[in-house]
C-alpha cells in the first residue's frame, strides 16, 4: 500500500504559533543581542536531496544532552540512527545511567576504541576532551529550552521543592521570590544550568561582554543547536545539515520523561520573571542567541523549508497513527517526494520508535562488548566542589521554615 503525503507549496506562510523574530513573546526584558551565527548557504548540506544529489550523510557527531530540554527524546532519535548505521558510541558505566564519567572516556576494548563515531550521553561540553575521542569530522549538536520552562521542569524533576522546603501550593513563585538565596543548595540545577552544560563558566554571569563573546564562540563551534519549542523545525534543519533521510528523524510523539505538575503552565508574574532573568542571565543570552540563529536559518530555507516541515509533521503523524494501531496490520510504503526517498513503515520501525534511551544502551552494550559496571554516586564535574565551597559561606536570609539545607553531594 502506498501513502502519498505530498503537500503543495503555500507561499509565505509561517507555522502557526511561531515567532519569526526568535524572541519568546513572554520575554519582556530581552536586550538587543548580536545576531546568531549562520552557516554559509552555499553548503550543499543545506539543500534537500532533490537539489543536492551528491550530498553524503554525516555519521559522526557529539550531542550535548542538556538536562530537561527534550534531550531524552532526541537521544532516542540519534541512537536509532547509530544502530541502523552500525556506528560506535561512547557508553556510560551501565545502561541505567545517562551520565558519562571519566572512566567511560578512557574505556578501551578492541575493536571498539577511540576514535568513536558518536557521543550523546550527559556530559558537559569540553571541545578538546571530546575531540580526542571522536572522528576528526565529527559535528557538534545540542538542544536548548526556554529558561523559565526549563526551571519549572528542573524544580519538579529534581524535587527542588522538597529539598529546599518550598511552599507546596506554588514552589516556583516561592523560589523566584529570591533565587540568589538558594546558592549552595540546588544552585547548579536552577541557575544557568543549560549554559553550564554548554561549557560556559558560571563566573561569566553578570558580565555581558564576556558572556556574549563566549556564546558567539559557541556559535562557530556548534554545527546545529536545536530549540525545544520549535522541535520539528530543528529536526528538519538537522536532517538537511547532516544530509540524513526523513525516516532518520521520525520520533514517537509520546514524549519521554513527560510529567504533569500544578505549575507547569502557570503564569509567572513579570517581577518574578525579571528575577529569573537576573539569576540565570547566561541561560537567557544563550537561548536568545541560538533561537535567533534557528530562525535566521529557517528564513534562509524559504517556502521550500516550510513545506518540508509540513511534510515531516504529516508523515510523523501518519507513522505514529499506524504504530498505535493493532500490531497485526500490514506494513505500507511511504511514497517518496522531493524531500524524501520512499520507505517502508512496519512493526520493526514502530518498536524502535518506542524504545527508550535505556533500551538502546542495552543493545549497544551487547554489540560493543562493554561489561556494565556498578553504579557510583557523585559526578565527574569537579567544578561543583569549588562552587559549593564558595557558596557555603553565603548568608542564610530565611529562618527554620526552610528546613535543612541539602548541599549537593560530590
Would you summarize the structure shown here?
This protein is mainly alpha-helical and 410 residues long. The chain is 39% helix and 6% strand.
Topology, element by element:
Elements: E1 2-3, E2 61-64, H1 71-84, H2 102-105, E3 118-119, H3 127-131, E4 139-144, H4 147-157, H5 160-164, H6 171-176, H7 187-190, H8 193-197, H9 208-221, E5 224-227, H10 231-242, H11 270-279, H12 281-323, E6 332-334, E7 343-345, H13 347-353, H14 357-368, H15 383-391
Parallel strand pairs: 1-6, 2-3, 2-4, 4-5
Antiparallel strand pairs: 6-7
What does this structure look like?
There is one protein chain. With 410 residues, the chain is mainly alpha-helical. Helices cover 39% and strands 6% of the residues. The chain has a four-stranded parallel β-sheet, sandwiched between helices. Strands 1-6-7 form a three-stranded mixed β-sheet. A hairpin with an 8-residue loop joins strand 6 and strand 7 (343-345). Helix 10 (231-242) packs across helix 12 (281-323) and helix 12 runs antiparallel to helix 13 (347-353). The chain starts with a strand and ends in a 19-residue tail after the last helix.
Amino acid at each position: 500500500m502506498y501513502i502519498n503525503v505530498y503537500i503543495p507549496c503555500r507561499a509565505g506562510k509561517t507555522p502557526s504559533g511561531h515567532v519569526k523574530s526568535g524572541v519568546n513573546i513572554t520575554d519582556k526584558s530581552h536586550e538587543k543581542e548580536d545576531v546568531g551565527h549562520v552557516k554559509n548557504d552555499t553548503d550543499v548540506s543545506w539543500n534537500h536531496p532533490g537539489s543536492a544529489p551528491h550530498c553524503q550523510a554525516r555519521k559522526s557527531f557529539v550531542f550535548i544532552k542538556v538536562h530537561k530540554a527534550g534531550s531524552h527524546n532526541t537521544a532516542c532519535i540519534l541512537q536509532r540512527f547509530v544502530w541502523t548505521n552500525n556506528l560506535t558510541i561512547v557508553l556510560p558505566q551501565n545502561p541505567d545511567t545517562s551520565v558519562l564519567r571519566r572512566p567511560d572516556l578512557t574505556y578501551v576494548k578492541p575493536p571498539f576504541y577511540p576514535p568513536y563515531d558518536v557521543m550523546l550521553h550527559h556530559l558537559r561540553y569540553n571541545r578538546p576532551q571530546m575531540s580526542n575521542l571522536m572522528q576528526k569530522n565529527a559535528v557538534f549538536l545540542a538542544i536548548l529550552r526556554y529558561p523559565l520552562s526549563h526551571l519549572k521542569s528542573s524544580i519538579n524533576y529534581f524535587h527542588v521543592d522538597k529539598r529546599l522546603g518550598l511552599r507546596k501550593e506554588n514552589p516556583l513563585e516561592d523560589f523566584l521570590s529570591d533565587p540568589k538565596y538558594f546558592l549552595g543548595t540546588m544552585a547548579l540545577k536552577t541557575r544557568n544550568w543549560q549554559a553550564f552544560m554548554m561549557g560556559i563558566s558560571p563566573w561569566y554571569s553578570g558580565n555581558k561582554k564576556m558572556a556574549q563573546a563566549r556564546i558567539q564562540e559557541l556559535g562557530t563551534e556548534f554545527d546545529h543547536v536545536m530549540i525545544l519549542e520549535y522541535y520539528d523545525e530543528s529536526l528538519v534543519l538537522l536532517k538537511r545539515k547532516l544530509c540524513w533521510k526523513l525516516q532518520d528523524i521520525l520520533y514517537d510523539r509520546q514524549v519521554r520523561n513527560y510529567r504533569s505538575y500544578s505549575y507547569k503552565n502557570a503564569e509567572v508574574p513579570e517581577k518574578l520573571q525579571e528575577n529569573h532573568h537576573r539569576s540565570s542571565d547566561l541561560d537567557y543570552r544563550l537561548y536568545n542567541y541560538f533561537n535567533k540563529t534557528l530562525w535566521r536559518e529557517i528564513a534562509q530555507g524559504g517556502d521550500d523549508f516550510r513545506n518540508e516541515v509540513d511534510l515531516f509533521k504529516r508523515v510523523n503523524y501518519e507513522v505514529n497513527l499506524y504504530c498505535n494501531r493493532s500490531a497485526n496490520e500490514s506494513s505500507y510504503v511511504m511514497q517518496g517526494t522531493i524531500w524524501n526517498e520512499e520507505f517502508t513503515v512496519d512493526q520493526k520501525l514502530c518498536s524502535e520508535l518506542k524504545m527508550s534511551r535505556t533500551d538502546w544502551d542495552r543493545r549497544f552494550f551487547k554489540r560493543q562488548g562493554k561489561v556494565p559496571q556498578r553504579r557510583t554516586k557523585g559526578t565527574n564535574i569537579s567544578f561543583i566542589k569549588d562552587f559549593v565551597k564558595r557558596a557555603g559561606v553565603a548568608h542564610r536570609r530565611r529562618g527554620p521554615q526552610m528546613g535543612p539545607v541539602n548541599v549537593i553531594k560530590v
